[in-house]
Design goal:
The structure is a homodimer of 458-residue chains. Chain A has 2 domains: 274 residues, L-amino peptidase D-ALA esterase/amidase (4-Layer Sandwich); 149 residues, Roll (Ubiquitin-like (UB roll)), CATH 3.10.20. Helix content of chain A is 31%, strand content 23%. Chain A contains 12 helices and 16 strands. In chain A, the strands form 3 sheets. In chain A, strands 4-3-10-9-8-7 form a 6-stranded mixed β-sheet, with helices on both faces. In chain A, strands 14-13-12-15-11-16 form a 6-stranded mixed β-sheet. In chain A, strands 1-2-5-6 form a 4-stranded mixed β-sheet. The longest helix of chain A has 23 residues. In chain A, 67% of the residues are buried. At the A-B interface, α2, α5, α7, α8 and α9 of A face α2, α5, α7, α8 and α9 of B.
């Protein structure tokens, strides 16, 4: 109850392995990227990644949007068919193709046929089975992909595929839409090898971010590659909790895309022994995947459309981790908190107001009699536990609200405003109720976001 | 399946009685408003309404925000004590006080004591019991109300209370914060009188809007007065479904306030017979209340912070009304749809994407294993039914997407952009799945919203 502002920062991220933001190709993969002419700008827009040693174990999470794009549906179908997992969460994959400039969402049966044609062309060009291809696409919703350009691009890209680091970077560059920077991260952990020693495995990831970023079960486009060995289902078991703590805690603008997808592929090329569920090695690989996911999510938040500040909400003292994540997510998703961050305004009242809405986001779903519908009732009965008399809030390291001491705290407004000029703003909340912690990532709301999104298709 | 764009507009609002936007004081009330000095600007900031014939039947809906403000909690307590309704939804009330300029939220025990002191002063000045007072407040979260100024204001306002129309308008003006216009609406319906004839009853409402507008169970500050007669519980039964179809379908910025409150007071002064639950008279009074609620919600949306366009999403052909409302609400809440509206960009892909997210708003609440938590599972199992192959979308009367005909429709982009220049933008979606309909109200996202909210407390 006497924690200082500094102690409000949670420990949840400190047990993750260190991450570097450079391209490091794990063993067992080749990649490439180029400009195929999908984007009018002439920027790179086509990426291919191939597993060199045959099908790799693959796990995925996808958007729950009812208008899931054609590439999402085809990827799910291929994963399902290869593993028997009806949810399409995991399976075997040998090639990934990413197109940028057109989302191939809400394009109907024609869009489905287009994506299948891309799968066939990719399969023919790389020599893999059609059913072992995975698909990503991003761009304007409702436009068709230019199949002739994609086909010519695939023919051009396949001979350039390489296992060197530059090839991975070219693929990451081609994943971008309006991203101002290429988002890439790598880490390495020691895992047991079959001969009883250990071996270093690499986990590398790439992502595209920018706008329509408010991932749910899923996340924005992202690919994580590792040369560790694991079954598809084991890999899926590592991906889901990592995504829950990282990508599902990311919000740029509250809009969940039709194309959100994360793929994790494990080639096994490191020579490490296959990780078994529940083992120490699985935990270590899981933390490595989470470290990459967290860093990419932070890169995505920092590069949100029009953003000038990364906002990290760190919540401690929650009843449980799920409550902490809900509160953190509510804070970074608030338009008013985001606008205040842009103005360097230490408006803690908006932070408290947003925190008080955690888990209530859809409680307005009422039945015909104006009473909460079934799901709203469940939610209303289980809001995040939060109490104004135990809550403490700090902004950029300065304590601004202390519920244990009556509430508002006198603070040096000019000093806090100055601290808010940094490229990352940490908003820390100690709920004072338990040991749960969690974090969420967002960005400020700026005039540039409005301008950028007022004129996109036209 | 062959509906034209025009037929996409639902009939849900056409059976409501017509509304006029003028102050019309129902019988049995006196009101007043003045500048008490709470706001630094010197604008009117204190309103009082008193029932002249003793306690009036009262019903209320409040914010579910965990940081519900002191006036919300005191009002609930008074309603509960007067009726025995533990939820604080209805009871008896004789005086309402509204302060503007300070929300009295997150102000701890001191803020609670302040609000009780205001109740005592109001009771003494008006001669009503403390427990028959209801309270509204709006403004900056975390600041204390200046009790001396409020007390002096109450002493000054009580002698001015009047039953004329101008007095009602003065109260509505004093309810405003940064509202650019006073929000008021009135309607009249014929109800049975005890002598077997009918009598005209008046239903008038006022509201404040602007920002932090995303009501859930509740709504923003609003007071509806009627001279109809009804028991508190009957009145509550009429208010809840009306609020579900109107205020709970309103979003300016996705932030739910700590102070949202609607009060409906019925004086019975018209001489109409008390309406009985389930009667035709109750239905007629309910539609009158809904007509006022709908019109005030539309005024609030049109006057959203920085807004230049009212956005109405009209959904027909849904599986049921709840689905229709969820889809409509998802559309008007989307930052990307709001920004596109600002740019007069007929970007139907964002509308489809937002519609596809209906009811998924918090599906990201995952448990520690990365699987959906209980409430998320309920929601995920029951998303709004929507199908790209039966969906039709029109923007400002122009059909832009027809899932029955393969999806995207060729349309005259320049003509649609010109039509989007109107002060109201109607986005109509026919889901093609059933007979459910509903609507939601929002506004465009503008640079002015960002600028206004970047500098508020400082």
């Amino acid at each position: 109850m006497t924690a200082t502002a500094a102690s409000l920062v949670p420990a949840s991220s400190t047990d993750l392995p260190p991450v570097e933001r450079r391209a490091a190709m794990p063993g067992g993969f080749r990649a490439g990227g180029l400009a195929a002419g999908i984007k009018a700008s002439g920027r790179p827009d086509l990426a291919v990644i191939v597993a060199t040693g045959g099908p790799a174990a693959a796990a995925a999470v996808f958007t729950p949007n009812a208008f899931a794009a054609a590439p999402v549906r085809l990827s799910k179908a291929h994963l399902s068919a290869s593993s028997g997992d009806a949810r399409g969460g995991f399976g075997w994959a040998e090639a990934i193709v990413s197109t940028s400039g057109s989302a191939n969402a809400a394009t109907g049966a024609a869009g489905e046929a287009d994506q299948l044609e891309i799968a066939r062309h990719l399969a023919a060009a790389t020599g893999v089975e059609v059913g072992r291809t995975l698909h990503l696409s991003t761009g304007v919703i409702g436009t068709r992909l230019p199949l002739d350009r994609v086909a010519a691009g695939l023919d051009a890209i396949v001979p350039t595929l390489s296992g060197d680091h530059g090839a991975l970077e070219r693929a990451a560059i081609a994943l971008r839409t309006t991203d101002s920077v290429t988002k890439i991260a790598t880490t390495s952990v020691q895992l047991p090898s079959p001969d009883g020693t250990t071996v270093a495995v690499t986990v590398s990831g790439m992502a595209k971010g920018v706008g329509m970023i408010h991932p749910r079960m899923a996340t924005m486009l992202s690919v994580v590659l590792t040369d560790a060995a694991a079954s598809p289902e084991t890999l899926w078991g590592l991906l889901r909790p990592a995504a829950a703590r990282t990508w599902n805690q990311l919000s740029v603008d509250g809009d969940t895309s039709t194309n959100d997808t994360v793929f994790v592929l494990a080639s096994g090329a490191s020579g490490a022994a296959p990780v078994e569920p529940g083992s120490a090695a699985a935990a270590r690989l899981g933390r490595a995947i989470e470290a990459i996911a967290r860093d990419l999510a932070r890169q995505q938040a920092a590069d949100g459309e029009g953003a000038s500040t990364l906002i990290t909400a760190s919540v401690t003292g929650a009843r449980d981790d799920a409550d902490a994540r809900a509160v953190a997510r509510a804070v970074v998703s608030s338009s008013l908190v985001k606008a205040a961050a842009h103005g360097r305004d230490p408006n803690w009242g908006r932070i408290a107001g947003a925190a008080g809405n955690a888990r209530l986001a859809d409680a307005a779903v009422l039945d015909a009699a104006g009473l909460p519908a079934a799901e709203a009732a469940v939610r209303a009965a289980n809001p995040a536990a939060i109490d104004a008399t135990t809550l403490r809030i700090s902004i950029a390291g300065y304590l601004v609200f202390d519920g244990c001491a009556g509430g508002p705290v006198d603070f040096d407004r000019a000093a806090v405003r100055a601290a808010m000029e940094a490229s990352e703003l940490v908003i820390a909340l100690d709920l004072g109720l338990g040991a749960g912690s969690g974090e969420a990532f967002g960005c400020d709301l700026t005039e540039a976001y409005v301008i950028e999104n007022s004129e996109y298709t036209t």
